[in-house]
Design a protein that fits this description.
- By secondary structure, the protein is of the alpha+beta class.
- It has a domain of 76 residues: RRM (RNA recognition motif) domain (Alpha-Beta Plaits).
- The protein is 37% helix and 20% strand.
- The protein contains five helices and six strands, in the order βαββαβββααα.
- The strands form two sheets. Strands 2-3-1-6 form a four-stranded antiparallel beta sheet, covered by helices on one side. It has a two-stranded antiparallel sheet with strand order 4-5.
- The longest helix has 19 residues.
- It is elongated.
C-alpha cells in the first residue's frame, strides 16, 4: 500500500523515515520529494509498504506524531486518475493564449448585434394622438 507522509521537517531524511515506518512492517521503498534545483526536501514523501495491515498500522500510529519538531500527517496515497494526468500535461504558453483569444472572438461574433440601418429612422411620436 502506498502512503503519503506530509508536513515533514526539511531536515528529515529518507533513512529516518524508512526506519520510522519499518517499526510497523516491511518498507518496500521510501522516496522523499526534493527540489530539482536546490536538492532540499519539499516536506513530503511516499512510502510503499507491501502489507496493507502494516500500512494501516503505520497510518494509525504515525499520523499526528511529532517528528523533528513537525507534526506529520500520514495517509493512504491517492492514485492519479487518467483525467488528472491528462490535464497536467504542459501546454506551451503561446498555445494557451491563442486558444483563449480564439474563444473570445467566437463569443464576440455570436453576441454581436446587427447594426441599425440609419436610413429607416423611427417616425417621431406625436404626443397629441394619445391624449384626449
Amino acid at each position: 500500500m502506498k502512503l503519503l507522509a506530509r508536513n515533514l521537517a526539511r531536515t528529515t531524511t529518507e533513512a529516518e523515515l524508512k526506519a520510522l515506518f519499518e517499526t510497523y512492517g516491511k518498507v518496500q521503498y521510501c522516496t522523499l520529494a526534493t527540489d530539482k534545483d536546490t536538492g532540499n526536501s519539499k516536506g513530503f514523501a511516499f512510502i510503499e509498504m507491501p502489507s496493507p495491515g502494516d500500512a494501516r498500522a503505520a497510518v494509525k500510529n504515525l499520523n499526528g506524531k511529532d517528528l523533528a519538531g513537525s507534526k506529520i500527517r500520514v495517509k493512504k496515497a491517492e492514485s492519479k486518475k487518467p483525467e488528472q494526468a491528462e490535464s497536467k500535461q504542459k501546454i506551451p504558453k503561446a498555445e494557451k493564449v491563442a486558444s483563449v483569444n480564439i474563444d473570445a472572438e467566437k463569443k464576440d461574433t455570436e453576441k454581436a448585434k446587427p447594426e441599425k440601418d440609419e436610413s429607416k429612422q423611427d417616425a417621431p411620436i406625436n404626443p397629441g394622438i394619445w391624449s384626449k
